[in-house]
Amino acid sequence: MKRFPKIVAATAAIALTGGALTACGSSDAQSAGNEGEGPTRVVLTSHAAADTLDELDLEDRVVGLVKTGVFPEALDAYSGDEYTDIGSLKEPKMDVIAELGPDLILFGNRTREMEPEFAKISDQVIAGDPDTSETIASNRAKVEEIAALFGAEDKAAGELAEIDEMVSATKAKAEGAGTALVLMTSGGKVTGYGPGSRFDLIFNELGMTPAGELEAEGSHGAPLSWEQIAELNPDHVFVIDRDAAIGAEGEAAAALLDNPLFNRTAAATNDNVHFLDGQNWYLVGGGLGVLEAMIDEIDSAVS
């Protein structure tokens, strides 16, 4: 296995800065509810939790969520003005949240450090994002925790069972699919991700074989040259265009990858370069509906 620039403790470092990031535990008081009961004024800075509430037909319990900046298409159910924009993923407006009088705040990892401030506004404050080191198990725990608040456990259990079936089917296909490399493009640069990174889901949970051991510091992957990528020679490349995901200007991933060295890889030669939904993978990263869509992308790539 080839070794390239080190990504030291990438999983832990991802928690605060990256896209679909590591989750933390719940905090403060939590109360289970019977069906039709539970919180009625929910505020979210977690896209994954927003997706879960939508999938559980509980979107009418939401009064506000982060909508400033790129708002993922997967959350279109919340595009109406009845859902107050409380700011951005990293900078929610605390005064707007306070005015809404939430009885539940589900926060994402980008606002993890603001949990004490949220607790001054609402008696019930809970982490809403899954952990990227064990995304499927962590996502299950988050979905079950949220569903229990509203007495929606049965509906959640059915959808979680469907996800489990998808994971098993995808893993079976991935076993014989060859090696894989995850690349993120941003600002004209490309970085690689492997097991233990924010996209560990693709390897340790969905069964793709890493093309090499990538190690680096920080949350944005291991910087790779085109020569290194050519040497890794992955059978499959999964690409996330970060600039497109966050609405930033920059060279499109497809144009950046169109060079002689990359085009010599087995993935490019065999048409196995897969452009993933950047909003789902980078901005949302979990939830009942979005996680299913993410798994489906990998399944389609190896089918």
Structural features, described:
- This protein has 303 residues and is α/β, with parallel strands linked by helices.
- It is 39% helix and 16% strand.
- It has helices at residues 10-17, 47-55, 94-100, 115-119, 135-149, 153-174, 201-205, 226-232, 242-246, 253-257, 260-263, 266-269, 278-284, 288-302, and strands at 3-4, 27-28, 42-44, 62-65, 84-85, 104-107, 124-127, 179-186, 189-193, 209-210, 213-214, 222-223, 236-241, 273-275.
- The chain has a six-stranded mixed β-sheet with strand order 2-7-6-3-4-5, sandwiched between helices. Strands 8, 9, 10, 12, 13 and 14 form a six-stranded mixed β-sheet that branches. A two-stranded parallel sheet has the order 1-11.
- Strand 3, helix 2 and strand 4 (62-65) form a beta-alpha-beta unit.
- Helix 5 packs antiparallel against helix 6 (153-174) and helix 6 (153-174) packs parallel to helix 14 (288-302).
- Residues 1-31 have low confidence and may be disordered.
Summarize the SSE layout with pairings.
Elements: E1 3-4, H1 10-17, E2 27-28, E3 42-44, H2 47-55, E4 62-65, E5 84-85, H3 94-100, E6 104-107, H4 115-119, E7 124-127, H5 135-149, H6 153-174, E8 179-186, E9 189-193, H7 201-205, E10 209-210, E11 213-214, E12 222-223, H8 226-232, E13 236-241, H9 242-246, H10 253-257, H11 260-263, H12 266-269, E14 273-275, H13 278-284, H14 288-302
Parallel strand pairs: 1-11, 3-4, 3-6, 4-5, 6-7, 8-10, 8-13, 13-14
Antiparallel strand pairs: 2-7, 8-9, 9-12
Helix pairs in contact: 5-6, 6-14
